[in-house]
Structures are given as C-alpha cells and as structure tokens.
Write a structure and sequence with these properties.
Elements lengths: L2 E2 L22 E3 L2 H14 L8 H8 L12 E3 L5 H13 L7 H25 L6 E8 L4 E8 L3 H6 L9 H8 L10 E2 L2 E2 L5 H11 L3 E6 L2 E6 L2 E6 L7 E8 L7 H14 L8
Parallel strand pairs: 1-2
Antiparallel strand pairs: 3-4, 4-5, 5-11, 6-7, 8-9, 8-11, 9-10
Length: 279
C-alpha cells in the first residue's frame, strides 16, 4: 500500500525509524516533517536509505533546484550562520507570494524569519545532537501555507527541563512547560543579571494561535499536536530519538505586524533582546 505521510499523521510512521531500517519504499507522498526526520535518522544511524519515490528521493539526495517550492535541507550545529540560513529559507518561501503588497510581504517575512531563527536557536543551544538538526521548509500553493520543520537526534525536552524544574517527570509535562512564557532550561547572564529567556516556544505557540496555524512537537516517546485550537497528546508506540518541531503557518491569517505581536504578547523586554531561548 502506498503511504501518504504528513504533519497530520506522522505518528503512524515513526516505526520506519527503528534502528537499522533502511527501507523507505511504498511512499507516495511526503512533507518536510518526514524528510527532515529521515535525514537526521539516516546520518545518526550512518546508513543509506532505499527510496523508491522520485519526489522523496530528489528532496533527500538531489542537489537543490531553485524552481522548487521547497527549500534545501540545511544542517544546524551551532549559531554560526543561522541568520544566513534563516534569510535563505525565508527568501525561498517569499518568492511564492508574488501577489502580496509590500507591507504584507514585510509582515510575512518578519514572522517567518522570527519563527525560523527561534527553532534553529533551540537546536544549536539545547539539542546536544550528534548530527545537529536538520531544517527545511515548503510552500503549498493551494492554501498558501508554509510548513517548516527542525529534527534532531539529541537529548529531548525532559532531560533539558530537569535542569531547572525537578518536579517534571515525563516528556509531556516538559513540552507543556516549555510552551509557557518564561519557562527556560538554562540561565543566561548578561552584565551580571539573568537575561530574559523562555519566550521562543511560547512565541511560536502564540503566533500560530493568532494566525490559525498548527504544530507538532515530538520529544522521544511523546507527541503533542496543536490543531483547530486544541492541544492533544499521544504516547508513541515507536518513539523517536530526540526532538522534532514542525509548524504550518497561513499567510492569509496575518492580521497584525510583528511589532504589534511583540508589544502585546512578549512585552517590552523581549523587544530589547531578540535573541531568546527556545525553552
């Protein structure tokens, strides 16, 4: 049976990332979430994967072609070049929105760059992944949405959050804690004072709520999905090693510029410090 793998059903296909599996045939459709996971898994396990679907194989193996609606897969290890990667991903996405006014295009650029950089910062700072993180984005013309994903093979949410929150005892609680404003797994100091931290994942959540978006977060054995204004949790039968964060963002639902969002959701302190922790 040909398999259609997407953000909405990714939990049904984590079994493909069982240790040593190299067979990724019988796949008729894939989205960035599965592609980034495949690349992270492949490099962590140090194996070559067998892919029969041409579209999927080209995304994984073929050199990037500028006429595509998807970005190349980028590898993130640290904060070096993150701004460059974010700019590149954003420019690829924006070329698909040719009918927007200059002001709407600026709003879209600001939101995408903010979201991209926050997710990549998280991998660079917290993942402890031996292969770093893999990121990519794709534009879907039918509903004018952008899907973005980052996948790593690191220590996941619980181990990170235990550094500051000893009462958290499972991945679900760790993820839900990380969605709250100001929840951080690190203390960062600036000029002898603790910096503002813990806004990145909260900010992503608020932006997607405000724009009718959705996301999936996987942390080891736990998946949390936000869709249709509802959060749901599922314990995976076949756990992933590490973290996957993917979201879908709808341009048509942007009603406020980025300055409005920062003023009303993140308060003045984050406006003075745009380099925030994801947790």
């Amino acid at each position: 049976m040909q398999q259609h793998i997407s953000l909405s059903n990714i939990e049904n296909f984590t079994y493909l990332f069982s240790s040593g599996n190299d067979q990724f045939n019988d796949i008729s459709w894939v989205e960035p979430i599965f592609i980034a996971m495949t690349r992270a898994y492949q490099n962590d396990e140090k194996i070559s994967v067998q892919i029969s679907n041409t579209y999927f194989r080209d995304m994984i193996l073929k050199e990037y072609q500028s006429n595509k609606t998807y970005s190349p897969i980028e590898n993130v290890f640290n904060r070096t070049s993150l701004d460059e990667i974010s700019d590149h991903l954003t420019s690829i996405m924006l070329k698909n929105f040719k009918d927007l006014s200059d002001s709407d295009l600026k709003d879209l650029r600001d939101y995408l760059q903010y979201l991209f950089i926050e997710l990549m910062n998280n991998v660079a700072d917290h993942s402890h992944s031996p292969v770093g993180g893999y990121v990519m984005a794709q534009y879907y013309k039918t509903n004018k949405k952008v899907q973005f994903v980052v996948a790593d093979r690191g220590i996941a949410f619980l181990e990170n959050m235990l550094l500051n929150f000893s009462d958290i005892d499972n991945e679900e609680k760790a993820i839900l804690k990380a969605l709250k404003k100001g929840a951080t797994s690190t203390k960062q100091m600036m000029y002898g004072k603790e910096r503002n931290a813990g806004y990145g994942l909260y900010a992503m959540f608020e932006i997607l709520k405000m724009t009718g978006g959705c996301f999936v977060i996987i942390s080891n054995d736990t998946l949390i999905r936000y869709e249709n204004e509802v959060l749901t949790t599922k314990i995976l039968d076949n756990p992933w090693k590490g973290v996957v964060v993917a979201f879908e963002f709808f341009e048509a639902n942007i009603n406020h510029d980025m300055d409005y969002f920062k003023r009303n959701y993140l308060w003045n302190e984050i406006m003075e410090d745009g380099d925030e922790d994801f947790f």
